[in-house]
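Attaching the record inline, Q. Sequence:
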Amino acid sequence: MSLTAAIQIARSALTTSQIGLQVAGQNLANLGTPGYTRQVASLSPIRSNQSSEFYIGRGVQVDGVRRQINEAVQKRLWNGVSDEYAKARTYDINNQLESLLNELTGFDLSSELSGFFNAWSEAANLVATPASVVEQGDRMAGFINSLRQDLGALRRQLEDEVDASVLRADAILEEIASINSEIQRTEGGAGTANALRDQRDSLITELSQFLDVTVVENSSGNVDILVGSTPIVLGSKSRGLDVERREEDGVLTTRVVVAVDNEPLPITSGSIGGLLEARNSGVDETIEKLDTITSELIFRVNALHSTGRNASQLTSTTGTLQVRTSDRTLAINDPDNETFADLPFSAENGGFFVEVTNSSTGATQRVRVDVDLDGLNSDDTTPEDIRAALDGITGVNASWDSEGKLTITADADYEFSFADDSSGVLAVLGVNSYFEGTDADSIGVRQELLDDPSRVMLGRSVDGEFVENATALELSNLRDEALTALSGNDFSGFWRDHVQHVGTQTSASLNEANAASLVRESLEAQRASISGVDADEESVNLITFQQQYSGAARLIQIADQLMDELLAIV
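Structure, as predicted:
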């Protein structure tokens, strides 16, 4: 080996050790930097030249400075982050929902239902006044209204969170696309883009908090990002995210779509996935259950109350349902009759009786009003048919008021009541009803009863005889009636089953959230063991490269001395 070759070797060692020292220093400097990936100088010997009978190397070279990373572990970590955030948000929402329901506290729907039916039971036993029945019903209706509003507020909160999350995720996609372009430009010019790659990975990690993604790197250094099989980033172009809301069957639905073509994204994880899942299976389901039990309560109570009476019959009553003018001449069961098609309950084929008493003579007539809703012969009953039939009864007048409500009044010296409504049409129209409204949002005790509790119907005609507590007794017994609309449960059982379901979901989601957190922590540890900076290891590297540098410098010094001696001899 010539002295010149020795100097070249030493110089390569000096250069390499300098780079090695820089890399180790960079690693130590970023010991606590989030998202930083440990860098490693890749070294290789310089190809040898033949010298006499030996092949002697020409020193060392740096092939590149690469990130120490395991792509498979990194992708599993992103999936783990998505899963953890989904499970955590699901649990948080389920926990909020369970707190809202507030069961077993004495201030819950089960307690309110019990108090309501107890009031009717006490009235049936003649130990409670109509005023107490009205008071308890008003209290329960107010509780249901408040619970429905709280559930609606929680739903709106989740919608706002979805909007904010999608907005941030969309911004991240734009940043990733921009960094893709920078990486391609940098590495295309034989440069190193490690810092940019770290930045991109950090953004993908943040993106994984919102939704589940698949990351595919191509030969240019760009990454494509997909949700399911749908791309949302292609190289340097982001396709964007947007929130789309539409009403389907009266229910507002939310979905996340690709901004450029409104393609829906199959988001199953991340906080957005958790939000949508918890909203659909938790909040929306609870709202649906609350509306179902409330609608059934309104209809069943009104069906009994409408055919009830007191010792003194009615001289007037006004229904609670506002019937559109255009719907009054359409059959009640006509799908085009929007007034009735939009209701959660419906009338059936049957009829009811009107009992009219002349208070002066004591004479009573009992007139049947048929309600034909069999769907045959195009002669099904319209709201106007019912009004006309009532108006045709001696001593009774029926009309539509300015709000479209059916108003029934008795002539002077006449009183009336209703009985045996097999059609349920009186309850649907809200005639002589206890409740007004159709669901949890609108339920309330009828204003006439609030103004005058004596109009509460406690009795009824039974086989032509007035029984003063018959309606109160039937309403009390309604508490334990198994109802088809409530999946064969009574009111309390139906709600109790749902509350237990929410509790089970909350407990399960907590376990899932804890498990997902442990998985993510394990994956974080795996990544850290591969890509994290170890201060001790880097300190050893510093010493190693320092020794390499010192050795190379000593080699150059010796070669110079030898060269000087050689020149002196010559």
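The chain has a mean pLDDT of 92. Residues 70-293+473-528 form one domain.

More tomorrow.
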